[in-house]
């Protein structure tokens, strides 16, 4: 895999501690160049948002969370029946446990990854959770694009190219859970299933209520 291992992009230092380096190696080993570039852009966008909003955060933990946030989409980390966000969160927690990281930090990274697609909640949690949510939103949907300077945008895209991101990200998402579409119930990835599967029948919350085993 051809990747860019730059230490500073757009004024943001990319962590190169032992933990950060080992996390990156796992991403390179089990992920794809496409996911690698996306994950590094997410870290940089999240970090720039932290600067702009003056949000104190743990850069190393934010980096590890960014590296693992989509690894639940790849076969090595994907479970048979859990949301891909949870698979990525579990993988990151197991990785950090091996480095003796404290329980509160393990939980923080788990939440940061598990909630990164949870609109309306993630942005109100701890800074790391909110920041990565914002970085994902910027890269995937362009949320906050107006706050990104042309200089920073061009520098980041040069270092970590998008490479037809709009066309490739939806099939990339789908490839991670096409065999367990039930895990998209109640979350935005059901939209991916509806886009990719003709006549996809979503599980409906109201049907769950009306067909519950309660007699009345």
UniProtKB/TrEMBL annotation:
Lineage, top-rank taxon, reads Bacteria
Q: What is the designated name of this protein?
A: HD domain-containing protein
Q: Which InterPro entries match?
A: HD/PDEase_dom, HD_domain
Ranges of residues in domain HD: 36-123
């Amino acid at each position: 895999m051809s990747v860019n291992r730059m230490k500073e992009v757009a004024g943001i230092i990319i962590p190169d501690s032992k933990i950060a380096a080992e996390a990156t190696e796992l991403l390179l080993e089990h992920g794809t160049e496409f996911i690698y570039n996306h994950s590094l852009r997410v870290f940089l966008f999240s970090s720039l948002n932290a600067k702009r909003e003056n949000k104190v955060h743990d850069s190393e933990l934010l980096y590890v969370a960014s590296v693992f946030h989509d690894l639940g989409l790849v076969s090595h980390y994907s479970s048979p029946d859990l949301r891909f966000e949870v698979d990525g969160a579990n993988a990151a927690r197991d990785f950090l446990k091996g480095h003796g990281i404290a329980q509160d930090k393990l939980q923080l990274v788990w939440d940061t990854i598990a909630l990164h697609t949870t609109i309306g909640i993630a942005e109100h949690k701890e800074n790391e959770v909110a920041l990565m949510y914002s970085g994902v939103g910027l890269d995937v949907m362009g949320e906050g694009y107006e706050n990104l300077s042309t200089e920073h945008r061009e520098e980041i895209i040069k270092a970590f190219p998008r490479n037809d991101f709009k066309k490739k990200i939806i099939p990339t998402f789908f490839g991670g859970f096409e065999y367990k579409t039930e895990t998209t119930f109640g979350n935005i990835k059901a939209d991916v299933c509806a886009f990719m599967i003709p006549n996809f029948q979503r599980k409906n919350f109201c049907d769950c209520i009306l067909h519950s085993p309660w007699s009345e």
